[in-house]
């Protein structure tokens, strides 16, 4: 399972699926029922979901703690959907290999971390998984510009990383537009407060991957929630 070429082969396929899918809704599993992950994943699949977003928080980089490699590995065994892992942790370079081995298809680190971002992005690239870089709302795009050529995906946070259920910050829209000007090739992802009121603006600003927590898990019917979100960007 840990043989690098196998990781690479799996990832090429997963990243191709993310790129080719066009606009995609990625449920953030932060607010799902962890007592019944298998049912949750099945319900999401039945709702037409094609990829998952997992939020890893360490209680240090952000003031909240979620989960780590065992949950990624458990979800990997439940689905072959691409797994997009958002690392809100300090010193991600210490853990990226373990997350890749656990089955992550794309690893996103924050530009605000207190270590050499370029080196960690290169480390992720060498693991054969997709490379993502995230920016919090207060961080200007300029801080990431010289690193974009190392990335497959740019994650524009529309809330301060750390908690689900926060309100959308429209500063993300300007950043998405500016990022699209910088690169056609980059996958643009938006995360935080994405719901029926905000998703169309994110789409118009250039986002292709829409991370959604509350607007799915706060609804009793995932199928309706996903369908309505899709309709809003058609
Ligand atoms: C916040 C996380 C998000 C969060 C989104 O730090 O990165 O993925 O779960 O949740 P909502 O959609 O509720 O803002
Ligand atoms: Zn996230």
The name of the CATH architecture is: Alpha-Beta Barrel
The SSE order reads HEHEHEHEHEHEHEHEHH
* Average pLDDT for all residues: 95
Number of helices: 10
Structure notes:
This protein is an alpha/beta fold and 234 residues long. The protein has a single domain (4-232), classed as Alpha-Beta Barrel (TIM Barrel). 39% of the residues lie in helices and 18% in strands. It contains 10 helices and 8 strands. An 8-stranded parallel sheet has the order 1-8-7-6-5-4-3-2. Helix 5 links the parallel strand 4 (106-110) and strand 5. Helix 3 packs parallel to helix 4. The termini are far apart. Bound molecules: D-xylitol-5-phosphate and zinc ion (ZN). The site of D-xylitol-5-phosphate has 21 residues, from strand 2, strand 8 and helix 9.
Summarize it.
This protein is of the alpha/beta class and 234 residues long.
Layout: helices, strands, pairs:
Blueprint (H helix, E strand, L loop, with lengths): L3 H17 L3 E4 L9 H10 L5 E6 L11 H10 L4 E6 L7 H7 L3 E5 L6 H10 L3 E6 L6 H4 L7 E5 L13 H12 L4 E5 L7 H6 L4 E4 L1 H4 L4 H11 L2
Parallel strand pairs: 1-8, 2-3, 3-4, 4-5, 5-6, 6-7, 7-8
Helix pairs in contact: 3-4
The structure holds D-xylitol-5-phosphate and zinc ion.
Zinc ion binds next to strand 2.
């Amino acid at each position: 399972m840990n043989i690098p070429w196998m990781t690479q082969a799996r990832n090429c396929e997963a990243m191709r699926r993310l790129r080719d899918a066009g606009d995609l809704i990625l449920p953030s599993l932060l607010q799902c029922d962890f007592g019944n992950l298998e049912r949750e994943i099945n319900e999401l699949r039945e709702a037409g979901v094609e990829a998952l977003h997992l939020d890893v928080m360490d209680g240090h980089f952000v003031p909240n703690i979620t989960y780590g490699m065992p949950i990624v590995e458990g979800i990997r065994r439940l689905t072959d959907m691409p797994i997009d892992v958002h690392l809100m942790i300090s010193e991600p370079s210490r853990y990226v290999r373990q997350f890749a081995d656990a089955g992550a298809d794309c690893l996103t680190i924050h530009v605000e971390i207190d270590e050499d971002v370029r080196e960690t992005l290169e480390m992720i690239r060498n693991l054969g998984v997709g490379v993502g870089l995230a920016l919090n709302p207060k961080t200007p795009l300029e801080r990431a510009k010289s690193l974009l050529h190392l990335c497959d995906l740019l994650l524009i946070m529309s809330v301060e990383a750390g908690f689900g259920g926060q309100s959308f910050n429209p500063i993300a829209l300007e950043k998405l537009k500016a990022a699209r000007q910088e690169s056609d090739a980059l996958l643009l992802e938006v995360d935080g407060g994405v719901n029926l009121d905000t998703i169309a603006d994110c789409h118009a600003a250039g986002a292709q991957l829409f991370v959604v927590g509350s607007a799915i898990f706060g609804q009793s019917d995932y199928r309706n929630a996903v369908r309505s979100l899709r309709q809003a960007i058609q």
